[in-house]
Amino acid sequence: MKRQLKPIPKFKNEKQEHNFWSKHETAEFFDISNPIRLDFSNLKRSTKPITIRLPQSLVSSLKLLANKKDVPYQSLMKIFLAQKIQEERLVSGGING
Q1: Cα separation, 21 vs 11, whole angstroms
Q2: Least buried of 3, 16, 17, 19, by fewest C-beta within 10 Å?
């Protein structure tokens, strides 16, 4: 006899979803014995490759810092850019984009 799975609630935001899943077992909501096959082959890229010229010393410093944090240097660069953009949005009252 197949057991009844609980319905997954609707979440208002990511924090609410995180709190929910930190207190519940996924096995209550998903049939782990019957996995769903997903096809992501038609997914469009969410990142755009760009070319940027930076001083070698800046790249070297970034790579050293990334190594200390155990992350790829390009990922660290994206984190830094995102943080700075967020700071600027807060200071200037918002930037479109």
Answers
A1: 11
A2: 3
